[in-house]
Amino acid sequence: MAQLEEKIKDVYLKEELSKRYLSYAMSTIVSRSLPDVRDGLKPVHRRLLYAMRQLHLDPKNGFKKCARVVGDVIGKYHPHGDSAVYGAMVRLAQDFSVRYPLVDGQGNFGNIDGDGAAAMRYTEARLTEFAMALMEGLNENAVDFVDTYDGEEQEPVVMPSVVPNLLCNGSSGIAVGMATNIPPHNLSEVCDALLYMIEKPDCDNEALVRKIKGPDFPTGGVIVDNFSSIVETYKQGKGSFRIRAKWEKEELSHGQYQIVVTEIPYQVIKSKLIEKIAQLLTEKKVPLLADVRDESAQDVRIVLEPKNRTVDAALLMEHLFKQTELESKFNMNMNVLDSDGVPRVMSIYEVLREFLNHRHIVLKRRAQYKLDKILARLEILSGYLIAYLNLDEIIRIIREEDDAKAVMMQKFNLSDNQAEAILNMKLRSLRKLEETEIKSEFDELSTMKAELEELLSDESKRWNALADEIRKIKEKFGKKTALGRRRTEFAEAPADVEITIEALVEKEPITVILSQKGWIRALKGHVSLTDEFKFKDDDSLKLAIHAQTTDKIILLDTSGKFFTVQASDIPSGRGFGQPLRLMIDLSNNDNICSMFVFVPNQKYIIASNTGHGFVVDENHLIAQTKNGRKIMNLLEGEYTAFCKPIVGDMVAVVGQNRKLLVFKVEEIPTMARGRGVCLQKYKDCEMTDIQIFKSEDGFEYNRSGGVAVEKDLMGWLGHRAQVGKIVPFGFPKTNTFFKE
């Protein structure tokens, strides 16, 4: 018990949690989520490729079951779940996920529709040529090896990476407190940038971007960013790329056409994309589109059928780009582990410089390894040559001496390795031809030794050798090959196209009818507003206007709120329509007092029953939501009653007291919101009507026998807020300009 008490330590929980969480975070960052800038691999990928190499799964050899590979990986190198390892392996084999696949899969490895791969017991795999290039030099002491987690095996710390895998295949991952997301690039262009950097070590990021141009996604598509923004993204190591689907217009008979999408943005699941378009069709949010079909086989082929042949294809696509993943953003974050294992965000210059430095170290180590092997062989060969020159004496020593090895070493000044090699020589090697071959090999190796020593002593020669390696890789995987051709194209950043309702809806005349009970409907065509419209038994006409299906309908309620309804959304005239309250959030205590078609640049006078009002311009009429837009403030007992367009310079106001006042429109202030000013002064009565007119035309009113026009205004002309004078003879008893 005493021994146990001695092991108990008092610690602060906060400090202990901080230490342990930091350990966990660093483990996640370094050992799982972030790739190494030198080979572009995370530990799981590196161990996976190394295990496949150990199983001799070269491109020239046959396939092996993926279960066998996964078993070796988790048993020897990567102590994690088999599903995680197999998932990583599957992604390395998908040509729509990885620009240059590292695994050659046989069987079902998933597809661009989002379907998963078959179980690992059914699929088979081997390495690709690109993966072999990534590991070239592992047997030549190119990189350091460390013990595996159980100490029974060894694994490479980093791959020699003849190919610039980080940029060519990209990477993505989420660690603790940081993430990485690097797009794939075209190997040929990356090689051009590397060669340029070798030639001009002090070049800037912009010069490198002119070589690399931008990402090259395995699924193609079109990048629609301007060059300056791309340069800034690569300079900062962070930014985004806009990718659009590639499409073309296919002409059909009788002037018809269809749009065919042949490439979709990177990491977009095709089946979900088509489902989204179909959903928008069902919800009638893409009125220019009639149908969508998936005719894909090995290649992507999504067919979009326009509503009619007059629909502009570019406009239709712009609408779909805004609403679907036919346009997506790739957010780049070049957060990687540098050569010291420290995570940081790098610019394109820093990434390429780290790769070249790594390749330079690998070149020196491989050259030194080869030199050591050559020196060891030359030592043996020189011993053989001494033996051939003194063959008879060598044979005598072997036959007669008890310690032949020591005697030979002393007499001919041989090393231990040389003496051992001579003693192990077969009798058949004593023939004359063998001596000639040894001399030839000795001369050849001596030449190679001199070349390697010169290479190791001259840095400029090493950089030239690196440039030659890069050119060979470019030739092998470059744009002349099917794998290396550029897939993603570039286009100018599109101007923001405003998708107006006029472009999306076919323009047709309609008559909008609102009943007293608040039911709204739209009849086709401009029918007479005096027609006897059909309503429910206890309902009747309240308001009716002529409009077009492309118009915005503005409604004003008695609480001073403006509402906006698209004319195309109003139900057709079959039946009695639908309650307006289903389209806007109209309070139960309020009613619509005015309905009209929105006209740009038009001003209106809004007034309450008490004769207060103000001018409001078109900027304050449009409501963006169903809740409407509050414009007029009212006192208790007041309600909004009028909204009239300003079509002249004079205003005529009449009240229940049959007093009429005419004054200039300019006397009424323009306001964004408020109660307004007094238009006409009343005592124990309310305002009944208002009319805006041109002074030279006069105001109009109903009189028996027709419409009367009063041009002589002197009897009623005054200023705002005055009482006014008695209405002219014959003025309607309803105290309104026109009988209702």
Question: Could you walk me through the main structural features you see in this protein, from its secondary elements to its overall organization?
Answer:
It is built from 19 helices and 35 strands. With 740 residues, the protein is of the alpha+beta class. Among the domains are: 29-161, Alpha-Beta Complex (Topoisomerase II, domain 5), CATH 3.90.199; 246-325, Gyrase A, domain 2 (2-Layer Sandwich), CATH 3.30.1360; 505-598, no CATH class; 600-740, Neuraminidase. A four-stranded mixed sheet has the order 14-9-8-17. Strands 10-11-13-12 form a four-stranded antiparallel sheet, covered by helices on one side. A four-stranded antiparallel sheet has the order 20-18-19-23, with no helix packed on it. Helix 3 crosses helix 4 (66-77) and helix 8 (187-199) runs antiparallel to helix 9 (205-212). The longest helix is centred in the middle third of the chain and has 42 residues, at 348-389. The radius of gyration is 43 Å and the shape is elongated.
Unreliable segments (pLDDT under 50, ≥5 consecutive)?
none
User: Strand pairing plus helix content: what structural class?
Assistant: alpha+beta
Radius of gyration: 43 Å
Mean pLDDT: 89
Q: Which range best describes the helical content: under 10%, 10-25%, 25-40%, 40-55%, 55-70% or over 70%? A: 25-40%
Q: What is the number of helices?
A: 19
Strand elements, count? 35
Largest sheet data: 4 strands, mixed
CATH architecture of one domain: 6 Propeller
- Tell me the overall shape: elongated
The portion of residues forming beta strands comes to: 15-25%
Here the CATH topology of one domain equals Neuraminidase
Please give the oligomerization state of what you see: single chain
State the CATH superfamily name of one domain: DNA gyrase/topoisomerase IV, subunit A, C-terminal
In CATH, what is the class of one domain? Answer: Mainly Beta
Strand order of the largest sheet: 14-9-8-17
Our measurement of the CA-to-CA distance between the termini, rounded to an integer number of angstroms, reads: 102 Å
